[in-house]
Hints:
single chain; 144 residues; alpha+beta; six-stranded mixed beta sheet; globular
Amino acid sequence: MNTQESNVKTVRDLTERVFNQHNADRISEYYSQGAKWHGGALGTVEGSENMINLFRSVFSAIPDLHVAEQEVVAQGDTVVVRLVVEGTHKGNLVGIPATGKHLRWDAVDLYKLADGKVTEVWAGDDFLAIMVETGAFKPPWMGN
């Protein structure tokens, strides 16, 4: 298995074992100790311990979260994955109180890897879709 194939396998394993199995404690198996997670509007989280806390809160807010890979592209030390994320909003999600609604949004995550571990990730989640689906925001173009 070449490095690109190995990196894709690492990202797929991470998606399944951490996100789909809701096991934030496994993050340190996939991320280097000083890794950075760039979450756009949510800011940057540094270090695997801080990422564990972040994703524990996400899994608490969306206990049935499921991530489905739509497409993957790999080149060198980079893996890009286009995803559909969904689940039921049952707890506080980045300040949005539980609604009980089913959420579904698109995401594109770009991972940088070294020595089989993620060193940085840029998470491009459609945060506007989350806000609209929870009722936290209604764009003016959507009407009444």
